[in-house]
Every structure is written in C-alpha cells, then in structure tokens.
C-alpha cells in the first residue's frame, strides 16, 4: 500500500497484518481521488474508521489543509501516526488522530467544518445506515460537502437521508463507493 499522488507520492503506508483492517485497494482509491481532485486543495477532511489512515493521508498529499482520523483500534492509531510522520506530517491542530469508536465520536458533534468525510466501516455490520442517520442533519459537512461511503457491493443504500442525497455510486469488485452530497 502506498500514497498514489501528490506531495507524498510513492511513500509506503504500513497496515496491520491481521484482519482487523481492510485497506481500500489502490485502484479504488485512485478512482475516488480522481473524482475528488478539484475539491481537495485547501479542504478539511474527516477519515472515519480510518484503519491505516490511507484515505486521509492521500487527501493531505493532494492538498487537503487538514485531517482528523478516527479509529477505535489503539494499534491502528499508532500506525496512523507513524504513517503521517513518514509522509512528513507530524501531529498538529490541523492533523489529529482520535482513538475512539467512530459512531460514538460522531454523536453529539455539531459545527460542521468538514468538506469531505471518508467512511470505510466494517462491511455488513449496519454501520452504513447508522452513519447516514447521524450525518443526515448536515451539521458536520460544510455546504457543498461530500460523504464518500465505502460498503459491500451488494449493500443497498438509500437515495436520500435528511439533507444528504446520493450523487453517484460505483462498484469495484466486492466494494461499492457511494458519494452523498448536501
């Protein structure tokens, strides 16, 4: 696994060797970031269920101004910090790693501030529906913001939820990427 493009292009990213983390495949990551390219410079991103931090790190490499990584696994949080440091981004107010369960961290948050939210929850555990419910009020996404939700290819997702509407979705093997916008 590596950073595909931008200032940290080609830098290797470490991932836990066990099955707790399912990294987004490079071809999927490349397709996602190609579609997001105009939105990335200066953006603030939230990487939920961050795993190795690959999505948020790719966004930083391509010009995002800041990123928050939320991950429940303590070892994965250490790994994310190591991956950030290896790419030249030490912890700062603009780049944070939060050791917390993503849904708990989200509940009660207000104030927006995120241009892009990446969410790659464990497949087939019901997180997609819960996540859409929590984000449906639009409090965490800025106007014109986008939620990039990764799910199992066969996962049925709603066209609309609150202020969110499904802009597009694409299947890559056993992975579906759904783009929800405000």
Description of the structure:
Helix 3 (74-86) links the parallel strand 2 and strand 3. The longest helix is centred in the middle third of the chain and has 13 residues, at 74-86. This protein has helices at 26-36, 54-61, 74-86, 102-106, 127-135; strands at 44-48, 66-71, 95-99, 114-119, 141-152, 160-161, 164-172, 175-181. It has one domain (26-181): Rossmann fold, CATH 3.40.50.150. The protein has 182 residues and is an alpha/beta fold.
Using brief descriptors, characterize the structure shown.
25% helix, 182 residues, alpha/beta, Rossmann fold, single chain, 8-stranded mixed sheet
Give the topology, please.
Layout: H1 26-36, E1 44-48, H2 54-61, E2 66-71, H3 74-86, E3 95-99, H4 102-106, E4 114-119, H5 127-135, E5 141-152, E6 160-161, E7 164-172, E8 175-181
Parallel strand pairs: 1-2, 1-4, 2-3, 4-5
Antiparallel strand pairs: 5-8, 6-7, 7-8
Overview in brief:
With 182 residues, the chain is an alpha/beta fold.
Q: What proportion strand?
A: 25-35%
> What best-fitting shape do the alpha-carbon axes yield?
globular
- CATH domain fold name: Rossmann fold
Largest sheet geometry: 8 strands, mixed
CATH class: Alpha Beta
> How many helices does DSSP assign?
5
């Amino acid at each position: 696994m590596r950073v595909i493009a931008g200032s940290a292009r080609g830098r290797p990213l470490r991932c836990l060797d066990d099955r707790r983390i399912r990294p987004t495949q490079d071809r999927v990551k490349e397709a996602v970031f190609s579609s997001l390219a105009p939105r990335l410079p200066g953006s603030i991103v939230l990487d939920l269920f961050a795993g190795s931090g690959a999505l948020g790190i790719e966004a930083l490499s391509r010009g995002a101004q800041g990123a928050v990584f939320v991950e429940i696994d303590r070892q994965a949080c250490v790994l994310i910090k190591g991956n950030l440091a290896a790419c030249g981004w030490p912890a700062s107010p603009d780049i944070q790693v939060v050791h917390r369960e993503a849904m708990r961290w989200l509940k009660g948050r207000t104030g927006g501030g995120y241009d892009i939210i990446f969410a790659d929850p464990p497949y087939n555990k019901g997180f997609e529906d819960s996540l859409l419910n929590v984000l449906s009020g639009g409090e965490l996404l800025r106007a014109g913001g986008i939620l990039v939700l990764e799910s199992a290819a066969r996962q049925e997702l709603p066209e609309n939820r609150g202020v969110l509407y499904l802009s597009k979705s694409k299947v890559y093997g056993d992975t579906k990427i759904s783009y929800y916008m405000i």
